[in-house]
Amino acid sequence: MQPINLRSFAQKVRYHKKKFKRYLGKLEKNAPKDLDKNVAAIAPEVWKEIDCLSCANCCKKMSPTFKTADIEKIARHFEIKPKEFKEKWLYQDKDGDWVNRVQPCQFLDLSTNMCAIYEVRPADCAGFPHLTRKKMVEYIHVHQQNIEYCPATFKLVEKMMDVV
């Protein structure tokens, strides 16, 4: 498995982004019946090629949405109150969601690309990049965004275009 070269990945995204988003848009409007089955078959192939620890672009360029349960769990981990956790590390965005104040994520160890709170990380992080969610068609808008940040999502869509 090759480490992810983020510069090369960014170039591939610039070149393919419109085509990939157009393809996903068509799938969203007219999804084949076997879409979930095909994606489930493709996903393991993606993970044979992608090493998240060589990338961590999601932690570098995106923020998870911190739900109330996430905030409470992480605050307990730090032995602080949820309010203190939010004041120290989060803000509410225009949609009212709690997100990181800074990028890269304050919990990312840049020397190892590992999460310092992995055991208590937000559910949004634990599920990322949401490749094999049931009813894939309901997550296509998420994949349209994630192809710009996540080599695994990019690779999934690339492989889907050959199969689906």
Q: Could you outline the blueprint of secondary structure elements for this entry?
A:
Layout: H1 6-29, H2 35-49, H3 57-61, H4 68-78, H5 82-89, E1 90-92, E2 98-100, E3 108-109, E4 114-115, H6 123-127, H7 140-146, H8 151-163
Summarize the structure in words.
The chain has helices at residues 6-29, 35-49, 57-61, 68-78, 82-89, 123-127, 140-146, 151-163, and strands at 90-92, 98-100, 108-109, 114-115. Helices cover 54% and strands 6% of the residues. The radius of gyration is 17 Å and the shape is globular. It is built from eight helices and four strands. It is mainly α. It folds into two domains: 6-59 and 129-163, no CATH class; 65-127, no CATH class.
Q: Could you give a quick summary of the protein structure above?
A:
The protein is 54% helix and 6% strand. It is mainly alpha-helical.
Q: What is the count of β-strands?
A: 4
Shape: globular
Low-pLDDT stretches: none
Specify Rg, calculated over alpha carbons. 17 Å
Strand order of the main beta sheet, please?
Answer: 1-2
Helix content percent band: 40-55%
- What series of H and E elements makes up the topology? HHHHHEEEEHHH
Q: List the domain count as a whole number.
A: 2
Separation, N- and C-terminal Cα atoms? 25 Å
The profile of the biggest β sheet is: 2 strands, antiparallel
Mean pLDDT: 94
Give the strand content: 5-15%
Structural class: mainly alpha
Number of helices: 8
